[in-house]
Amino acid sequence: MLNFEKRAEQLIQQSVERGELDQLAGQGKPLELDDDSMVPAELRMANRILKNAGCVPREVELRREIRCIERLLVNAVGAGRDSRAHRRLLHLLTQLDASRGHQSNLLESHRYRQSLHDKMR
């Protein structure tokens, strides 16, 4: 995912340099991030209370930790630290799959993550 994010940033920067993002609607105005019009009315207050308390859904927590470990793996030095991080990553990916109701194939997931890790080195 890191390579994808880097490539997206490069493309955005190139568009900015060419002026392709000038004169967009809403330019210079703050983003409206509190739009909850798609949330059912009966859930809005509860969501607002949870948000103000800093609570996020378990899936969001898992994704944050997965991204953190993926960054760690990219910068890891030493096999011991690397294998612990891989085990933790597989555990988190399994939890994420389970939270979505997916059955996880750990062998395929591990092979994919290992090939991704190898390419990033």
SSE inventory with pairings:
Elements: H1 2-18, H2 41-52, H3 58-75, H4 79-99, H5 106-120
Describe this structure in words.
- This protein has 5 helices and no strands.
- The protein is mostly helical and 121 residues long.
- The chain is flat and about 45 Å long.
- 69% of the residues lie in helices and 0% in strands.
Q: Could you say which structural class the secondary elements and strand pairing correspond to?
A: mainly alpha
DSSP strand (E) fraction? under 5%
How would a crystallographer describe the biggest sheet?
Answer: none
Distance, first to last CA: 14 Å
Helix content range of the residues, please? 55-70%
Radius of gyration: 19 Å
Q: What form results from the Cα inertia axes?
A: flat
Could you give the count of β-strands? Answer: 0
Low-confidence stretches: none
Average pLDDT metric: 79
Order of helices and strands: HHHHH
